Amino acid sequence: MTIRTHARTLVLALALAATAGAAQAKNPMVGGAPMYASKSIVENAVNSKDHTTLVAAVKAAGLVDTLAGPGPFTVFAPTNAAFAKLPAGTVESLVQPQNKATLTKILTYHVVPGTYTAQDLMALVKKGGGQAELKTVEGDNLTVMQKGKRLFVADDKGNTARVTIGNVMQSNGVIHVIDTVMMP
Q1: Residue 95 near residue 58 (C-beta atoms within 8 A)
Q2: 4-48, pLDDT tens digit by residue?
Q3: Could you report the per-residue pLDDT of 101-152, keeping only the tens digit for each?
Q4: Spacing of C-alpha 180 from chain mean position
Q5: Rounded to the nearest 5 degrees, what angle is found at the Cα of 63, between the Cα atoms of 58 and 65?
Q6: Is the alpha carbon torsion for 37, 38, 42, 47 positive or negative?
Q7: Deepest of 14, 22, 96, 115, by most Cβ within 10 A of its Cβ?
Q8: pTM over 0.85
Q9: Where does the pLDDT of residue 59 fall: very low under 50, low under 70, confident under 90, or very high at 90 and above?
Q10: CA distance 22 to 98
């Protein structure tokens, strides 16, 4: 190779490294782990220390293949702290094989078909005069509201969750981390 070829190769390598570094900088951190837009919802969620309960529940409900599939999905993902707010023994009971149908119902209530970014949700709220209804995979609706610049999600039982981390883009949709478990 000539010096010119080496120089071009070096410039290209540096440009690629800079691009990769910039791309990595844009990956949001959730539960101490970077979330990669090139990975699926499941591939990213298993790395979040804040979502170990959710991941265990998804596994117990047999929803891993679904949430790793092509989607797209918008997932309102409750943290471990959100699950800890439930009455004592609730999570342990729900992950038992005999409660799989109930667990599946609760988990699919957190999933909306399609990709709704925070900006999309805010536009729907504005269009809806202060709130927007989203039909979940489970079949019931979640209500999205905006207070200031923050998004909130409410279930049919009156529980309200705050979106603590929005727009965690995935290869098959988007995750919005929430601080309360929604109940259908």
Answers
A1: no
A2: 433 333 333 333 333 333 333 366 767 666 676 777 777 777 777
A3: 999 999 999 999 999 999 999 999 999 999 999 999 999 999 999 998 899 9
A4: 13
A5: 125
A6: negative
A7: 115
A8: no
A9: confident
A10: 47
SS (H, E, C) the chain: CCHHHHHHHHHHHHHHHHHHHHHHHCCCEECCEECCCCCCHHHHHCCCHHHHHHHHHHHHHCCHHHHHCCCCEEEEEECHHHHHCCCCCHHHHHCCHHHHHHHHHHHHCCEEECCCCHHHHHHHHHHCCCEEEEECCCCCEEEEEEECCEEEEECCCCCEEEEEEEEEEECCEEEEEECCCCCC
What is the model's pLDDT at position 157?
92
Tell me how far apart the alpha carbons of residues 108 and 104 are, in angstroms, rounded to a whole number.
6
Domains of the chain: 29-178 (2.30.180.10)
Listing from the earlier edge strand, what are the strands of the sheet with 73-78? 111-113, 73-78, 173-178, 160-170, 150-154, 141-147, 131-135
Token pair 């070096």 in the structure block, residue: 10
CA gap 17, 36 in Å, rounded: 17
Q: How many residues does the chain have?
A: 184
Instruction: Name the residue with tokens 């919802």.
Output: 41
